């Protein structure tokens, strides 16, 4: 049986595995400045939704899809709190912290692991629209205090528009990430797909992810956060280290690189792709948004 994956922007993916529809993140209610590939109303089926963390670019839309389809939502306690307060029924909510084995039909097993959020650009106004993954820049933790910054103190209309999105959607996400989650999904007879949808990790953990992934979905954006420490390397160096520790999966695809409401608006991954091609046996899988592609072929 063929399993498919469809990239829906940022870190949101829809997979069909056997007869199950599984979302990774469900940010379908996006700001007008970004392309929307699928709206929550267009989703007629979902069985499971895995949430990376509770920020604005992972959650809004999840509550609509969960209520409409009855999907079970797996995520950190903060994401689950937000969804509970939005009225998603308790029996659909599954808080995780890492270390769980979640058994799905067809003996599919999902294993969450604790991850780390990338660092945020130190000064958004100084960040160019397009960054390359071989660029180093200063970072700090957290989303900042945008909703409380007066409009005339914001550097551009883009920031003011994003502030309005944040204000309008208060309560549909959290300013606290709640802890990023990585997910390893094992599909018997087909393979294993691993998600680390943020540019950070406790690196030693990656050596022990098992089953070893055949396919990895990795964030290729932002200043990496390595073991919670300051990191002087680039996103390229971070991702190459991740691939090595994961045993050089057969295929990798990027996320978090395509569009952002604030600078950098896009990440140029070309130097990363050259290095992956030259230095590993992993093949880069380019996912065309809103187009289903075989996961394990
Ligand atoms: Zn975040």
TrEMBL record:
Pfam families: Lactamase_B_2
Domain Metallo-beta-lactamase: 2-186
Family annotation (SMART domains): Lactamase_B
Gene3D superfamilies in alphabetical order: Ribonuclease Z/Hydroxyacylglutathione hydrolase-like
Protein name according to UniProt: Metallo-beta-lactamase domain-containing protein
Domain of life: Eukaryota
Species name: Filobasidium floriforme
């Amino acid at each position: 049986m063929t399993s498919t994956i469809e990239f829906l922007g940022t870190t949101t993916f829809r997979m069909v595995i056997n007869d199950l529809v599984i979302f990774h993140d469900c940010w379908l209610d996006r700001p007008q400045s970004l392309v929307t590939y699928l709206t929550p109303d267009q989703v007629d089926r979902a069985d499971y939704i895995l949430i990376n963390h509770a920020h604005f670019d992972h959650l809004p839309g999840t509550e609509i899809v969960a209520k409409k389809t009855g999907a079970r939502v797996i995520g950190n306690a903060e994401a689950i709190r937000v969804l509970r307060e939005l009225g998603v029924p308790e029996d659909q909510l599954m808080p995780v912290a890492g270390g769980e084995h979640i058994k799905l039909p067809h003996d599919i097993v999902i294993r969450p692991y604790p991850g780390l959020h990338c660092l945020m650009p130190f000064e958004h106004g100084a960040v160019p629209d397009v960054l390359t993954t071989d660029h180093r820049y200063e970072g700090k933790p957290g989303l900042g205090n945008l909703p409380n910054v007066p409009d005339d103190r914001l550097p551009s209309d883009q920031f003011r528009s994003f502030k309005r999105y944040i204000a309008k959607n208060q309560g549909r996400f959290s300013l606290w990430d709640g802890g990023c989650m990585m997910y390893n999904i094992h599909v018997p007879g087909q393979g294993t797909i691993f998600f680390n949808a943020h540019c950070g990790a406790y690196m030693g953990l990656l050596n022990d992810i098992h089953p070893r992934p055949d396919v990895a979905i990795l964030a290729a954006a932002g200043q990496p956060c390595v073991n919670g420490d300051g990191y002087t390397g680039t996103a390229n160096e971070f991702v190459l280290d991740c691939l090595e520790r994961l045993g050089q999966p057969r295929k990798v695809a990027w996320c978090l690189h395509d569009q952002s409401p604030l600078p950098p608006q896009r990440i140029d991954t070309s130097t990363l792709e050259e290095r992956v091609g030259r230095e590993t046996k992993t093949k880069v899988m380019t996912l065309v948004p809103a187009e289903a592609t075989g996961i394990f072929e």
